[in-house]
Amino acid sequence: MQIKYTTLSVQRRISAIFLCAVFLILLIFIRLFYLQVLSGYSLQSRGLSQWLRDLPISAKRGTITDRNGVALASSHTTFDCYVRKADIENRDAVAEVLSSALEISKDEILEKLDKYNYSEILIGKQLQKSVVQKVLSGYQSGIFFTSTTSRDYHYNNLLCQIIGFLSSDGDGQSGLERQYNSYLKGIDGVTLVETDIRGKSLNSSVSYYVDSIDGLNLELTIDFQIQQATEKILAEAMNNTGAKNASALVMNPNTGEIVAISTQPSFNLNNIDRSNIQTLNELSRAQVLSDTYEPGSTFKVIVAAIALNEGITSREHYYYCGGARIINGVRINCSRRSGHGPQTLQQGLNNSCNCVFMDLISQIGLRKFYWYLNELGFTSAYGLDFPGETKAVLMPEDIATDADLARMGFGQTIAISQLELVNAISAAINGGNVMQPYLVKKISTSSGETIYSKSATILNKVFKPSVSKQLNIMLEEVVSKGGGKYARIDGYNLAGKTGTAQKYQNGAIAQGKYVASFVGYYPADKPEYIVLVTVDEPKGAYYGGIVAAPVAKQIFEKIIDLRFSETQANAEYDLSKTEATIELPSLIGMTLSEAGSTLASLKLQYLVSGNGKRVTQQIAGPGSMVKEGDIVLLVME
Asked: What Cα–Cα distance (Å) separates residue 112 from each residue in 140, 143, 248?
């Protein structure tokens, strides 16, 4: 019986050992499955990282061109220099070669080699071929190069606020470079080299090369020739007026395409001073798109369009200006405090009479007026393809008084961007369509394949086509006979409106600080180009008709010269309006009433600067040849 028990015990032990062996083998298979199947890719990657060393190959950043293919920004190949410490045979020799070629002190290079415990140490970035050749002429083992790119801005300051610039890492930091960074930058490549555990290249190593993918190219709506002319004209205006800054926006009112845009002063994209970030931010800010201001009398175009659309006025509708309106006990002055007397809507536009537009907006009413502001896009951004687009700053409707509404009628107590003003006026003159403004027309690959194209987009329909026809007639007369006469180009039917706005500081009027502006378009009967010019804080004369209108005229002259042949001049334009010439007498020393009577007898208009009793200066000067209806600026001290 004892033997039988012993045999059974042994069998049990053998079975237990067998089961344990099977369990262990199963565990081994599970572990192998986990390592080879589930974690195989991860472990292979970790293994590769231990015996492969990589050096980056920067992708070529995409080119930015104007609408006609003129390259504004592009990239060329440069090189980054690395040192692989494990491959160095003579530290001093390596440092000597690099010091001579890269113009870096030998001690600084040796310090980098001692300080950083990396397999590859970056010594120099974006080196030109000549520098690389100098290094190779005294080549030492351990020195390696990878290709990268350097950005070229072909026209330095041109379109600088819009194109933008890159960070030290090559990413877009401002402007379109930032907005379209993921499209422009491409995908970097890499060079892989087999090494031992210390990072030393193996003698029998195999190099692996993963090519980079070039970035995409942007074709802008900008017209290089018009942009270049606009910037030159603005810079001259800055010098002539002593202004703080000057801006211009040129747009196609029918499509929303931005043709030219600039703020002066500007900066050189190829030589950016990053030592003063505040100054750089100010110079690189696209004020036309990102800042708001009180538009002044240019806003009267929008008020007139709303009133015409509502059927509460017409071109020949009469108003009376006594020099001011008293609203809720508040006296609100007209631009001419002595008053314009009885006048039609047309004359009110010609004279830029505040009283006419206070009456108009009062008839429109607060609720309806704010409804139009919303419909025109002032309460929300247009979705412009640019970082930092702003929207209007409006007084809450529920706290706006009748006096506030009256001031809005002539462009005060409301702050909008220059883009918003131009786009809203475009809707008033193009048949009623609010368009989506845009800057990028097309995105394509380096091989020329188009992957995206933008076309005109109507955001809203606000005005009747008949309103645009009436406005075009009236605003043409503002230029041919009214306050915009200094923008007139004989033989061409230009239309527009002037504006002069006081600036505020800490909630109070900033004495002697104004924004002079002019918005105009051509041809008046079928607009193709709309231009807004603003001159901020000009010295001396500050009226929009005197300061900004002549600047806009120069821009229109260049546009006509570039884009319209002589045969396209308006043959029906009444030249008799501009043929009569008058020799301007001296008005110096006269009182305002004496000078006003003299000018009225000559069928001339006038604007007044200052509150003095006598005329001390006049523009145009004595003896100047002027035309009937021209405006003379009287400086009173």
From this structure: 17, 14, 49
**Domains recognised in the chain with CATH numbers:** 53-220 (3.90.1310.10), 224-579 (3.40.710.10), 580-637 (3.30.10.20)
Does an H or E element contain 251, and which?
Answer: strand 245-251
CB-based burial of residue 24 (10 Å sphere; 0-12 exposed, 13-18 middle, 19+ buried)? exposed
Q: At 371, phi and psi to the nearest 5?
A: -60, -45
C-alpha distances (whole Å) from 138 to each of 55, 121, 123, 132 are 22, 19, 16, 10
3-state helix, strand, coil in the chain (%, to 5): 40, 25, 35
pLDDT tens-place string over residues 89-144: 888 999 999 988 888 898 898 888 888 777 778 888 888 888 888 888 888 888 88
Give the residue among 542, 517, 555, 563 at the shortest CA–CA distance from 288. 517
pLDDT on residue 50: 44
Spatial separation of the C-alpha atoms in residues 623 and 317, rounded to whole Å: 37
Q: How far apart are CA 126 and CA 152, in angstroms?
A: 12
The pair of structure tokens assigned to 464 is 């009747």
Six token digits for residue 469 = 């026809």
State the pLDDT at residue 574.
Answer: 39
Half-sphere exposure of 218 (CA within 13 A, CB side): 26
- Whether the CB-CB separation of 222 and 439 falls below 8 Å is answered with yes
Q: Record the tokens describing residue 336, joined without a space.
A: 């001419």
CA distance 542 to 529: 25
Q: How far is it, in rounded angstroms, from Cα 356 to Cα 135?
A: 76
* CA 49 to centroid of chain Cα atoms: 44
What span, in angstroms and rounded, lies between the C-alpha atoms of 602 and 359?
30
DSSP one-letter string for 365-414: -HHHHHHHHHHTTTTS----SSTT----B---GGG--HHHHHHHTTT-S-
Smallest Cα–Cα separation from 530: which of 217, 274, 202, 301?
301
b/e map 106-122, b = 16+ CB within 10 Å: eeebbebbeeeeebbbe
Residue 249 phi/psi, 5-degree rounding, is -135, 125
